[in-house]
Amino acid sequence: MKSAVLIIGWQEVVLHRRNRWVISFSVLFAGLTLLVAYFGMITSGYAGFQDFTRTSASIINLGGFLIPLFALLLGVFSFLTHREYLEILVTQPVSRTRVLLGKYLGLLFTVVGASALGFGLPGVIIALTIGTEGIFSYLAVILYSCLLAVVFTGLSVLISLLARRRQVALGIALGVWVFFELLYGVLMLATTLYLSPNILKTTLLVGLLGNPIDISRVLSLLQVGGPHLFGPAGATLMKLTGSTTLASLYGLAGLMVWVVCPLAAAIFVFRRQDL
Amino acid sequence: MPAVELNSVEFSYATRKALHGVSFCVAEGQTTALLGPNGGGKTTIFKILSTLMRPESGTVRIAGHDLLDDPLEVRRSIGVVFQGSSLDAELTTYENLVHQGHLYGLRGQELRTRIDYLFDRFGLSDRRNELAKSLSGGLRRRIELAKALLHLPKIVLLDEPTNGLDPNVRAEFWSYLFDLKERDGLTILLTTHSLEEAERCDHLIILSEGVVVASGSPESLKDRIGGEVIVVQCADPEGLAAKIRGRFDFEPSVVDGVLRIERGDGHRFVGEIMERFAEDIESLTVSRPTLEDVFIKETGHRFKDDEDRARG
To answer: Closest partner residue to B103 among A7, A15, A95, by Cβ?
Structure first.
């Protein structure tokens, strides 16, 4: 049953291909990216598509804002809207770990696919309009945004399994999103006000690893090449590691922990859970 | 070897014990119903049998395989139909079955042949390209059944399979179940709270508050009561019971404000009871025992009252 994971995963993708939420998200995301790319410099009196480098810098926050929300909501809806479907999967001769991995991979493919489409279509338009200069920065932003999708898909699975009821899971998912998007930064800022300078750097680095959205943002900024755009954590990371490559590896390692831990916890819970 | 065997199975939800040492066997090739009011424990047993939940203690064997030691073999032996629809509404009926087949390693011509056979058998051939969401409840049930049979299981588990269906569709669904038993020799285990549906089964396991209170064929269970049941509606059932006790050599019972007399020769007493206690009696009926009577005899209360109690 090696392919059971892939079968369940593909089934999940097929289930979502006609999902209006997925389609709406892709369209919304592509539309907003186009708007940002076109009107990003309107305050400077310029309207028209920017090149990839400028567009990349402009869309980092857009991806960091929308993709986690989309992954969290889709994951909760997928796991808890159609409970009988999950239950019937568990009665097949496939281990629960494989059932979960299959569902997770299918969900991930959908979220990453929709996000990549949302970034990709505007990318094609920009490339056709003003050329491909700076496209690698744009691709890096897509890559790190997709990694963010991986992290939050895992979190959505874990939340769904723990909450068990859709309304509760949706509440928790929204809470998690608000926490990482808004509250975390405020908490970190408040914390640093009371810290002595000798542990401030360590706190900032640990704090950076505590928020996958911040990690993804810093990784994207490292590629776009704008040290002046870093927050204090990003600047500290660059200063400590000394190079973009080391800083990127440090950030990627942090993101990997965020990818693996929620998924491992979800498998642990699902294997022992009564449905 | 029994198709399904439970021994001293216990299960608790967070604050409530749902099963108290449940033991029973299901014979191969029979249609067996777990009959009980809502909250009686039948859905908990169904979930354990379909490997969604693990028993706290006790043993469960299905088709000779231990549920905890060998869950994958158990899953290969069973086909499951849940109460709610497990079909994907956005897929066609054919696609739903193809996905199910893939999970059992079925592919290509073999899978197509099995799907065609099941579609033909359940009268679904002209629905193969319709989206599941566009079908009626009865058709969906048939597809669920076809889906459960795709891998040729030995045992089919159905949780309240006709719940929410109108009487005609319900009768039609039962004809398919009978056919499966007669032609394929399948073991069918279903849960129901319908006394009428339970009458159609070969064997019943009656549950109340997580305990097996009786089991046997519908006829043998009713025979335990013996003969006839006289039900008397009156203003003072306890008082009338005392009067009857004083006059006759049998023991009437009072269940939920209704006086009941179970006698092999009940009809012989009807005239005399009416004559002697006419002023106390509002109405009197005499009938052959029903499964409701069996439930009352074994639990001391009515089937519906048990449901009300379970709902709290």
So the answer is: A7
Q: What's the rounded Cα separation, in Å, for the pair B34 and B207? A: 7
pLDDT at A118 > cutoff 80: yes
Q: How far is Cα A109 from Cα A30, in angstroms, rounded to an integer? A: 18
Q: What is the rounded average pLDDT for all residues in chain A?
A: 86
Helix-helix angle A4-17:A96-130, to 10 degrees: 50
For an interface test with B, give the residue of A78, A88, A90, A161 to mutate (most B CBs within 10 A). A88
User: Which of A239, A272, A52 has its CA nearest to residue B52?
Assistant: A272
Model-level pTM greater than 0.90? no
Beta-strand relationship, B4-12 and B17-26: antiparallel
Identify the band that residue A1 occupies on the pLDDT scale cut at 50, 70 and 90: very low
What are the tokens at A13?
């993708």
Strand B78-81 and strand B155-159: the pairing is parallel
Q: Two tokens at B271?
A: 């005239």
- Closest approach of chain B CAs to the CA of A150, in angstroms? 25
- Most A CBs within 10 Å, among B103, B152, B158, to test the A interface: B103
Instruction: Identify whether the C-beta of residue A173 lies closer than 8 Å to the C-beta of residue A90.
Output: no
Which chain A residue has the Cα nearest residue B89?
Answer: A15
Taking contacts as CB-CB distances below 8 angstroms, the residues of chain B near A78 are: none
Query: Who's near A272: CB < 8 A, 6+ residues apart?
Result: none
Mark yes or no for CB contact B52/A91 under 8 Å.
Answer: yes
Contact A93, A1 (CB under 8 A): yes
Q: What are the structural domains of chain B?
A: 4-221 (3.40.50.300), 223-311 (3.30.70)
Do B162 and B83 meet the contact criterion of CB atoms below 8 Å apart?
no
